[in-house]
UniProtKB/TrEMBL annotation:
GO terms for biological process: acetyl-CoA transmembrane transport. The keyword Transmembrane applies. One of its GO terms (molecular function) is acetyl-CoA transmembrane transporter activity. Coiled coil: none annotated. Keywords: Membrane, Transmembrane, Transmembrane helix. Residues 1-40 are annotated as: Disordered. The keyword Disulfide bond does not apply. This is Acetyl-coenzyme A transporter 1.
Length: 549
């Protein structure tokens, strides 16, 4: 649905490893965890590695350490992951703000590139893992500068963002500048994520390293909630006047500029404390997953993707999600266009959190066997049909709207639709994660699985961008009230208005796109789905990477 409530499988990815030397600038390699499974109803969501894929840790010299002994480290990780969720949440709220300012879907498509860095970070992750200043610390070498730049960037953006969003008096949003700004924002957040993920493995002892994934999931979810749901609620004048004020006022309690300034200051203070007070533990020596450096890591990725079985998987998964693109990327924005308050859509994500925690646990029982893709295949037609149900929901929305907003039963229907969507989405998501874990070569598990998950994420990113871009070209409008005028382009629409007419939509491109997507989706299911399932029958040798030492 909307960026605020739609589940995006392609939010965050772990990185490939890098390797170990002893210079001032070290080039090292580390075996990262494979992706973690965490509930996602937003543009995050990454899978967590089974701990079996982590390198075995050396015995603790001082014996086992309880969680309380490392409570400070656990809390620090939690804070770092909360900070990581803030940029993700803010980026997810901007499309809803743009939609409320009548931005075009072409603009929305352009802004959707903001969500790509977390899926593409495999491209620069080996560099972050490998190059660092040894005296300062392997992870702090990247974490501290990145968070300082993020904080300063947020402070600067707080002085410009109102101008970029438009003043509402003839000046529209500057979508290009917003996209560039938030793309850099997300790029920095993705780089911070690589550093924090790596530091988590060495910050905690062997007995407590499992808490890293808990900190990741809880912290990022909390950060996203603060940056998206809480921000949209406090930014909304109607929400604040209705629930938080005695005297109505024309603006919300906070603006985006206020929010950016506050969190920019928090980033700078937190980073200073980390730089001065937190020391890094001695690095763990890599084991079987060791690679020889940056070049070797990239060669390894290329050799994996050249294997016939992996190449087939990549081509199929890159096209598997085309059928869901209209429903996932456009529906929420259409609901805002039809008058549903954006803060209400964001708040719908809250009751989904328990469901998103429980679903992977239930579904994993069905995907744990030798054929996890069967679950993917069975869930796909139900998710495709929900795309048509979402289109019906958008059509129905203006018909139930009244002066006071929307009735309670309308929100109940939206919530039920979203819950059903989550069930089908997680069935497919968990199945793909299970399959990736099953086929990944254990000798290079982190790198291998990260690559497969990156491709899976890109399979969701590009159809969403294309779906948003196609809404406007597929929409048909007529100029009513002015003869010999059309509404085919922005210039023509302005001429129609100047001539005393108005542009009326006769065919909404969203409905056209919804039908096309479902047809394409079922075509993939019938023609390529069986081939996709057959990948499970490939022998283990088909997935083994031939490496030369």
């Amino acid at each position: 649905m909307s960026p605020a409530i739609a589940a995006k499988e392609g939010g965050r990815q772990r990185r490939a490893g890098s390797s170990s030397h002893h210079h001032c600038l070290d080039v090292r390699s580390e075996a990262p965890p494979a992706p973690r499974l965490c509930g996602d109803g937003r543009p995050r969501g990454e899978a967590e590695a089974p701990l079996l894929l982590l390198p075995p840790l050396p015995p603790e010299a001082g014996g086992p350490r309880g969680c309380r002994a490392e409570l400070g480290s656990v809390l620090l990780l939690l804070v770092l992951y909360v900070l990581q969720g803030i940029p993700l949440g803010l980026a997810g709220s901007v499309p809803l703000i743009l939609q409320s300012k009548s931005a075009s879907y072409t603009d929305q498509a352009f802004f959707s590139f903001v969500f790509w860095p977390f899926s593409l970070k495999l491209l620069w992750a080996p560099l972050v893992d490998a190059v660092y200043v040894r005296r300062f610390g392997r992870r702090k070498s990247w974490l501290v500068p990145t968070q300082y730049v993020l904080g300063l960037f947020m402070l600067y953006l707080s002085t410009r963002v109102d101008l970029l969003l438009g003043d509402g008096e003839g000046r529209g949003p500057d979508v290009v500048a917003l996209t560039v700004a938030f793309f850099l924002f997300e790029f920095l957040a993705a780089t911070q994520d690589i550093a924090v993920d790596g530091w988590a493995l060495t910050m905690l002892s062997r007995e407590n390293v499992g808490y890293a994934s808990t900190c990741n999931s809880v912290g990022q979810t909390a950060g996203y909630f603060l940056g998206n749901v809480l921000f949209l609620a406090l930014e909304s004048a109607s929400f604040c006047n209705k629930y938080l004020r005695f005297q109505p006022q024309p603006r919300g309690i906070v603006t985006l500029a206020d929010f950016l300034f506050f969190w920019g200051a928090v980033f700078l203070i937190t980073t200073t404390l980390v730089a001065l007070l937190k020391k890094e533990n001695k690095e763990l020596m890599p084991t079987k997953e060791e690679t020889k450096g940056i070049t070797d890591t990239y060669r390894l990725l290329f050799s994996i993707i050249k294997m016939p079985a992996v190449l087939t998987f990549c081509l199929l998964i890159l096209t598997a999600k085309v059928g869901f693109s209209a429903a996932d990327a456009v529906t929420g924005l259409k609901l805002v266009e039809e008058g549903v308050p954006k803060e209400h859509l964001a708040l719908l994500a809250v009751p989904m959190v328990p469901l998103q925690i429980i679903l992977p646990l239930i579904i994993s029982k069905y995907t744990a066997g030798p054929q996890p893709l069967n679950t993917f295949y069975k869930a796909m037609p139900f998710r495709l049909l929900l795309g048509l149900e979402f289109a019906f929901l958008v059509w129905w929305t203006p018909k139930v709207k009244h002066e006071g907003g929307f009735p309670v039963y309308y929100y109940a229907v939206v919530l039920l639709s979203y819950a059903l969507h989550q069930i089908t989405l997680y069935s497919m998501y968990v199945a793909i994660m299970a399959f990736n874990a099953k086929v990944s070569d254990p000798l290079i598990g982190g790198t291998y699985m990260t690559l497969l998950n990156t491709v899976s994420n890109l399979g969701g990113n590009w159809p969403s961008t294309v779906a948003l871009w196609l809404v406007d070209p597929l929409t048909v409008k007529e100029c009513v009230g002015a003869q010999e005028q059309t509404c085919g382009t922005t210039v023509a629409a302005e001429l129609c208005t100047k001539a005393g007419g108005s542009c009326v939509t006769t065919l909404d491109g969203y409905y056209v796109e919804s039908v096309i997507c479902v047809i394409l989706g079922f075509g993939w299911w019938f023609l390529l789905g069986p081939k996709f399932k057959k990948l499970q029958d490939e022998g283990q040798s088909s997935w083994k990477c031939k490496r030369t030492n």
